[in-house]
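for the writeup, i need someone to sanity check this before i put it in the appendix. the sequnce is what the collaborator sent (i think, or maybe the updated version? ugh). structure was predicted straight from it, no edits. if anything looks off just tell me and ill rerun, i have time this weekend
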Amino acid sequence: MTPSPRPPAVAGAFYPEDAASLRRSVERAFRDPRGPGSAPRRSASPGSSLRAVVVPHAGYPYSGPIAARAYQAVGADAPPESVLLLGVDHHGAGRPFAVSGVPWETPGALSVVDPVLVERLAREPIEIDERAHRSEHSLEVQLPFLQAVLPGVPTTMLSVRFAPLESLRAVARRVAEAVRGRRILLIASTDFSHYVPAETARRLDALAIDRILALDGEGLYRTVERHDISMCGIAPTTVLLEALEGERLTATLLGWGHSGEATPMSEVVGYAAVRIDRAGPDGAGP
């Protein structure tokens, strides 16, 4: 029996609930001055340097343009074989490290499952558990962007709950083993500082972003703990960096912003887009 797809949980809240409005909303995020400032691109190039991206996951008017900066980089690169999305566990439902084994619906679209990747991920400490994904938005809001730049490319969803560093390293080892030998794009979904003055967000987020740019998973985890940075996606981002440990990579900040740039507010949420590329022969990026 074909499993039932996971229906949208936040359509009409984080993004529009009808297909035409959703396409326009994604297009606006790309064309926004806070974003890349141009329509989504799809590459015909056979060359690929992009290994991973870090993207935000708030409502589209707030974080959409920053997310579009990362997805413009995804679209400009050669399409990967598959995508693995690592998201936040905001709700604490289901297993702490949960992969989804079903396609996901968004308005007007249905994702494609990568059954081989799901099977390779679903081993200790990761389990297949749809309960963890039912209400979670951090992964769902990425799909319309992915469908704009990588239509038809299989997408696998992995929810990662906050846990001790050694537990996250165990997840990272499983991720690294599961993607080995395949051209799979990794995406970590996270927002940064929550509900602090804009200058506080800028200062604290810079500390965390510095560790991401250094490709330092442990350093990121310790920095967020030490400075009490309210970065909701510290767990999936740590897993991403730990899974990539040992690879020759470079990281680039594509943009940082906050919710107060969309609507004036005294306390903001910070957002960042980062690309991680395979290093060239001389150690430089693309």
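The two ends are 45 Å apart (CA to CA). The chain has a mean pLDDT of 95.
thx in advance!!
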